[in-house]
TrEMBL record, chain A:
WD repeat windows: 99-141, 142-184, 185-227, 229-262
Keyword list, A-Z: Cytoplasm, Peroxisome, Protein transport, Repeat, Transport, WD repeat
Residue intervals of the EIPR1-like beta-propeller domain: 147-261
Coiled-coil regions listed: none
Identification of the protein by name: Peroxin-7
Main location: cytoplasm
PANTHER family: PEROXISOMAL TARGETING SIGNAL 2 RECEPTOR
Taxonomic superkingdom: Eukaryota
Cell location: Cytoplasm, Cytosol; Peroxisome matrix
Gene3D superfamilies xrefs: YVTN repeat-like/Quinoprotein amine dehydrogenase
Role: Receptor required for the peroxisomal import of proteins containing a C-terminal PTS2-type peroxisomal targeting signal. Specifically binds to cargo proteins containing a PTS2 peroxisomal targeting signal in the cytosol. Cargo protein-binding triggers interaction with PEX5 and formation of a ternary complex composed of PEX5 and PEX7 along with PTS2-containing cargo proteins, which is tranlocated into peroxisomes by passing through the PEX13-PEX14 docking complex.
Source organism (scientific name): Abeliophyllum distichum
InterPro entries, alphabetized: Beta-prop_EIPR1-like, PEX7, WD40/YVTN_repeat-like_dom_sf, WD40_PAC1, WD40_repeat_CS, WD40_repeat_dom_sf, WD40_rpt
UniProtKB/TrEMBL annotation, chain B:
Family designation: Belongs to the peroxisomal targeting signal receptor family.
SUPFAM superfamilies in alphabetical order: TPR-like
Protein name: Peroxisome biogenesis protein 5
Positions in coiled-coil regions: none
One cellular component term from this protein's GO annotations in UniProt: peroxisome
Keyword entries, A-Z: Cytoplasm, Peroxisome, Repeat, TPR repeat
Keyword Repeat: yes
Pfam families referenced in this protein's UniProt entry, alphabetically: TPR_1 (PF00515), TPR_16 (PF13432)
TPR repeat feature ranges: 500-533, 599-632, 633-666, 667-700
Compartments (UniProt record): Cytoplasm; Peroxisome
Origin species: Abeliophyllum distichum
Amino acid sequence: MPVFKTPFNGYSVKFSPFYESQLAVATSQNFGILGNGRLHVLQLNPTITEITSFDTADGVYDLCWSESHDSLLIAAVADGSLKIYDLSLPPTSNPIRSLHEHAREAHGVDFNTVRKDSFLSASWDDTVKLWTVDRPTSVRTFKEHAYCVYSAAWNPRHADVFASASGDCTARIWDVREPGSTMILPAHEFEILSCDWNKYDDCIIATASVDKSIKVWDVRNYRVPVAVLNGHGYAVRKVKFSPHRMSVIASCSYDMTVCLWDYMVEDALIGRYDHHTEFAVGVDMSVLVEGLLASTGWDELVYVWQHGMDPRAP
Amino acid sequence: MAMRELVTGGAACAVPGTSGSSNPLGALTNALIGSSSKNQERLREIPTATTTTTDGNFFAGTEEPFAALPGSEFEHPLQPNAQGSEFLQGFRSADQNRFADAWDEIQRPQIPHSLGRDSITNIPLEHGPPQRVLSSFLHSFVHSGHGAIPFRPTSLPVLGLSEGDKQCIRDRSSIMARHFFADKSEDFINTQVNALLSSLDIDNDVRSRGPMPRRFPELEEIWNESQGMKPGPYATDGWVTEFSQRQIEHNDPNAWVRSFERQHGANGWATEFEREQSQLASIDQMRGANISSLAAMEHTRKLAHTLAQNNDPKFQNSKFLQFVSKMSRGEITIEDNQIKQATISAPGDWAAEYQQQYSGGQTWADQFVNEQHSHGQGWVNEFAAERQLHGSVDGEWVNEFSKLHVNDWAEEFEHQVAEGVLGDSAGDNWANAYDEYLNQQVALKQNSESSRGVYVFSDLNPYVGHPNPLKEGQELFRKGLLSESVLALEAEVLKNPDNSEGWRLLGIAHAENDDDQQAIAAMMRAQEVDPTNLEVLLALGVSHTNELEQAAALKYLYSWLRHHPKYGSIAPADQPDNLYYADVARLFNDAAKISPDDADVHIVLGVLYNLSREYDKAIEAFQTSLKLKPRDYSLWNKLGATQANSVQSADAILAYQQALDLKPNYVRAWANMGISYANQGMYEDSIRYYVRALSMNPKADNAWQYLRISLSCASRNDMLEACDSRNLDFLQKEFPL
């Protein structure tokens, strides 16, 4: 299975929603504590080669692909800015936009998959902001969290609903048509680093926390979690629902592993990959190829593999 | 617009790939007009972007989605949607200064960031590249969580971190540490973060601009309030007073119990305690939206006051805010009347520890309640029995009791702080080590501030009185006995303080022996004596490049050119007050055209490209000069350091090996070799090279620090003690090369 070495520490990896062989990786120097960043766009053929890369003056913590234009990428940069890149233009003409409103590190971005015209950014300034690609300023700022917001995720079915995960130990559900959050989920007793919606049941959400667990919630009855997935040895950094299988979740953790879970069955842990030698901080599942996984970590490696295979196998 | 065009017309000479404008005129224009030439270019490219995207509507017709995007009215309730479209029309026509300004406004914040942040990516040439050292240093910080290894403060070379860099390190490491070290106590996290910050010479005054005060402004207020608050009687305190009073009045414990019971009912005391507990429990509700819970705030206020009585500034700065913020985030919960960590009770956490210290996990009040219930008799009986047992006089018990238990627990806590029983012993050790280290640092800093640029001579120099110490020094230097050579040369310059060659050689010997402070000091003396010595000027230019002092480096390199017999004519005689990088680089490129076979010019170019972080060009320049001077070991070292800078550590090792083949006693190259191995994650190998470097010059302090980092990265904590005690024999046996 192919591997790609990045000069900086990996932070996030995402498959293109348009081409099954394209993916992008966000990286930061010095673990994102200090230094530059780089966004790589990679091609699977079947080894991994770099199509292009973009340098930034600060670490890149996250990225997302546009759902409407196959060449557009949005990067969340540690200096608080969001940068929009157009792959059809040479690197010297990029980024085509730099949106700088967040007062602190931008830690997560997510593109709306229903409306396909807007995206969210989550920041350590405790806010989530709503943007469109064409406006130079944000459309809205959602400020309710009491600590860093680490990620925000659009609901896959409702164009106006999204969830946010924060270090204030809550996840919140928002409807952009409403002035405030519509639901506060005190989901964990420790910081929540990531959240994602089930792609088949629009009421199911998963949260991942520093408390090492992933919890699955039904927003119609949020007093008790639908499932608690224990198995990671350290903080769970990202959680992602499968685009193909309703009950399958992928996660990565500071315990350096990537895990696959089926939250509906009793022995929920269905796969564990310990191919990274440093914190695993980015994981994604391809929408176009079932079972194709990608991960990145602070060992500066990007792996792409088919579920069930050894990511390190040559 | 026109003026900007005019002035920035030379933007083509800006070095591509650098994020900041290297064009001084451009920089000037930016300062004057408040824009960037780069933005101008980008601006012009946007219409192209429109046409090249697959969907022609990408930038066009933007008005509609904006207006249609639900919820946008919440953000701009007073602005009609037309505002957006007006803006966008301006965008499409793209000929309005108004738009340019608006776009620049968005773009501008990017520029200072890139300039400020990039400083870190510069890596000195000669000795261990701090950038790469920083990387492995952060690495050992990040990994210290795994083996619960205390991360010891380490003194690092000057890294040239800007204030912005420091702020980033401070904020990000504090936030991230809470993710990595979730298993560890808050105490552990603080020690780790503090050790990191103090090693990097970053002020961890959380009240200045750290993340915490901003995160919890309301708690900050309480803190300030409590600072000015008069110590009012607490519930327990009042009880003590009351108790003592009554005790004096009646001098009979039973009577006191009766009167207490009369006042509060049989279980009054317990009730009161429970009330307190319920206040504590309400902290639980502070999680999430209930942060304004009054009872919790009341308790927080008390806590703030209690902790304010401790005068240790370090304590006030971190632990208090950490603990309070932890409570406010619900990381501490109340279960079974005990304060607990939300998950596994972390060792060394002071709150938990405090509870444990306190009557073995049960509060005394609990015990009292239990006893009252189980024995069916008041504790007074027990007290009486105990009094008989100890045969103590009336009142002594009260004193003792109030001293140990009844007295407000703040005092007890302070007491414990004073006694150092907080945290487990390991945590304590770190704290001590940390304090010790801070003191050392203060002393060191005072030392270095006063001594910077002042040459410090060795005591007891055997070469004083030597008939020809310069010759001896040259001979020793040639043989590679650097430390001996330093002594001989010191004797020379003591004898002839005006001998610039003596000072110059001394400087070079120090540089090769990995002591930059002394090297710079010696070179400065050499320059005083002979201001036009080309080799001295070049050495000073390199040293200042290493220290990330661009202005000084440019000054010396420019002087080098000015005083060079061949190139003096291309440099304007009147040296401008402010030298710009691009000008100096241009002059040297001209010089290289005049005589392409002058290795020195290529060396200076290599140094200059390191200043501008164009490592590929720098490597090329050094390789060119190596073709002309293949046996210059310091040149091979420069090449290696530059390759290490551009993340080519494997190539760097080859270059260092060349340097070492030419000069086996080149301490600096041995140490650099270690750094390159460490950068590739080959810590065991790096240790061997550091140990070798140290065996040649045990005074190379930097190498000791690098060694320590590699030891902890390689999980060789068993060897840390040998490293700390500088037990070279032991280390050499363990890590032979």
